[in-house]
Amino acid sequence: MSDDEDARLPEALREDDDPDWQLAPDSDQEFASDADTRAFIRAVAEDVRGDSSESKQLSAVLYRVSDLYDPEEDTSPEEIYLNVRRIMQIKERGGLKRE
Q1: DSSP assignment, residue 51?
Q2: pTM score
Q3: Which of 75, 74, 17, 13 is nearest to 44 (CA)?
Q4: Which distant-in-sequence residues (6+ apart) come within 8 Å of 60 by Cβ?
């Protein structure tokens, strides 16, 4: 990513020289409420949403990730991961079918 592209991102999403390990699974750190980051991710979600099921799924995942920065939402990266994994498993099986 170029410096110009990086500068347009909300500060929380800009690349650092060192990886941020504060939000590792065993950490007590939380995502701080950040309206700019939330709005940016939701705008990207709207941009990628199209007619295909894949673009709709990606848009939904991005929107869900934006919830991490919303003080009104109660979610975690682990919850989002498990939810997305479950959706992918259902899609792989061909949908919700009763056996």
Answers
A1: S
A2: 0.65
A3: 13
A4: 45
Q: Of 63, 52, 60, whose CA–CA distance to 86 is shortest?
A: 60
State how far Cα 29 lies from the chain centre.
Answer: 17
Give the largest Cα separation in the chain, rounded: 53
**Dihedral angle of Cα 17, 19, 20, 23, to the nearest 10 degrees:** 170
Amino acid identity at 53: S
pLDDT digits (tens, 9 = 90+) for 42-84: 999 999 999 998 898 899 999 999 999 999 988 888 888 888 8
Using alpha carbons only, what angle is made at residue 6 by residues 34 and 9, rounded to the nearest 5 degrees? 25
Triad 73, 79, 87: Cα angle to 5°:
110
The answer to whether 50 and 56 have CB atoms below 8 angstroms apart is yes
